From TrEMBL:
Topology term for the membrane: Multi-pass membrane protein
Protein name (database record): General L-amino acid transport system permease protein
Protein family per UniProt: Belongs to the binding-protein-dependent transport system permease family. HisMQ subfamily.
Mitochondrion as UniProt keyword: no
InterPro entries (UniProt xref): AA_ABC_transptr_permease_3TM, ArtM/GltK/GlnP/TcyL/YhdX-like, MetI-like, MetI-like_sf
Pfam families the UniProt entry points to: BPD_transp_1
Annotated transmembrane regions: 27-46, 100-120, 187-205, 226-247, 267-286, 368-389
Superkingdom of origin organism: Bacteria
Entry keyword set: Amino-acid transport, Cell membrane, Membrane, Transmembrane, Transmembrane helix, Transport
Gene3D superfamilies tied to this protein: MetI-like (1.10.3720.10)
Organism lineage: Bacteria, Pseudomonadati, Pseudomonadota, Alphaproteobacteria, Rhodospirillales
Residues annotated as domain ABC transmembrane type-1: 94-386
Cellular location(s): Cell inner membrane; Cell membrane
């Protein structure tokens, strides 16, 4: 009895002792040590930076965002003038970056999918053209491609006063493509609301049709229904709003056109360059995803009487998406980050405007931190959405 008591005491004492020989204790100790070192190094760098800035009487903080910017921006999605603040100028840069990134992602996805499918075509010429495009474009740095597209536009287009006028109201020159746009009217907001409502209704119809087909086996024309909703709802809103037809037509005034909308050479070059470059990588992602699908799936679809187009759309691509989506996310992130190359051709993106701001204010740390934070936020947003979509299409084991 006494022996058992002594063993129990020793076991209790041994269990409460701190020993690095215990794997759990050792793991916790090293993790705490690493975190402590990181915090100490970060505190040292921040303290040292603030101390040096104070000694040199350099202002810190983000108060400069409320000061007048005093510089112009060539194009923006919102109203801007040199009398506006640095904060609004920075917002213009963020919106311009988002515009290039979103449109580029859509166009690169479409072009990359077409080229990826074309690489697997049984037609020798189509397959070779697609393969040549991929191999050439992927091996040329994107910055050189931007210079190439910008040179094509700037060198091949005529001056403003000799602008091409292929269609009444449309002008093409070294300053860009000028086109008429509808005059501001409340009906356009109503049409946007009608379009959003149509999309919501189409989603519910799609879910209902899928449930109905699973229960009865009867298909429902969701494609035509969606098209009718997306076109019909805005059209009804347009007619109900009076069907305005007034247009703001570009007019030559001085050395440039005024009015209408313009696609600048800088925007065309950055959008085309990023789309063509990224689409080459997406094409390989799509091709590898299709090849990863077992050939038996295609044979089974053809045995059921499906043609090649329906087999690809209904059988192969839905299964290939599970392989395509993860690397496709990386290409979307690369396109977004590569948009910073717009600085080289003069497109007023986030980096370009932030660079002008920090040169005028001298607050480089804050400017660079804002650039990094913005790109981080955009990239995380893309990653979160694509991860959600990847989980949504993943196979669920029972």
């Amino acid at each position: 009895m006494a022996s058992e008591t002594r063993d129990t005491v020793r076991g209790a004492q041994g269990g409460s002792s701190f020993s690095l020989s215990d794997p759990t204790v050792r793991a916790v100790f090293y993790q705490v040590l690493v975190v402590g070192i990181v915090v100490a190094v970060g505190w040292y760098l921040i303290h040292n930076t603030l101390d040096n800035l104070s000694r040199r009487s350099i202002a810190t903080g983000f108060g400069f965002l409320e000061r007048e910017a005093s510089f112009g921006i060539g194009e923006s999605l919102i109203d801007y003038s040199p009398r506006d603040t640095y904060g609004r100028a920075f917002l213009v840069g963020v919106l311009n970056t988002l515009k290039v990134s979103i449109i580029g992602i859509v166009l690169a996805t479409v072009l990359g999918t077409v080229v990826g499918v074309a690489r697997l075509s049984s037609n020798w010429l189509i397959a070779k053209i697609a393969s040549t495009y991929v191999e050439i474009v992927r091996n040329i740095p994107p910055l050189l491609q931007l210079f190439f597209w910008y040179a094509i536009v700037s060198d091949s287009m005529p001056p403003v006063r000799q602008a091409l006028n292929p269609i009444p109201g449309v002008f093409l020159s070294q300053r860009g493509l000028f086109v008429p746009v509808p005059v501001a009217d409340p009906v356009w907001g109503e049409m946007a609301f009608a379009l959003a409502l149509a999309v919501i209704v189409a989603i519910f119809v799609h879910r209902w049709a899928r449930t109905r087909q699973a229960r009865t086996g009867l298909p429902f024309p969701t494609g035509l229904t969606t098209l009718g909703l997306v076109v019909g709802f805005p059209l009804i809103a347009y007619i109900a709003g009076g069907a305005p037809t007034a247009l703001d037509v570009p007019q030559l005034q001085g050395f440039n056109f005024r009015g209408g909308a313009v696609i600048s050479p800088e925007f065309f070059a950055i959008l085309t360059g990023l789309t063509v470059y990224t689409a080459a990588f997406i094409a390989e992602v799509v091709r590898s995803g299709i090849v990863a699908v077992n050939w038996g799936q295609t044979e089974a679809a053809r045995a059921l009487g499906l043609n090649s187009g329906r087999t690809l759309r209904l059988v192969v691509l839905p299964q290939a998406l599970r392989v395509i989506v993860p690397p496709l996310t990386s290409q979307y992130l690369n396109l977004t980050k590569n948009s910073s190359l717009a600085l080289a051709i003069g497109y007023p993106d986030l980096v370009s405007i932030a660079n002008t701001t920090l040169n005028q204010t001298g607050q480089a740390i804050e400017g660079v931190a804002m650039i990094m934070g913005t790109y981080l936020t955009i990239s995380l947003g893309i990653s979160i959405f694509m991860n959600w979509y990847n989980k949504r299409i993943a196979l669920v084991e029972r």
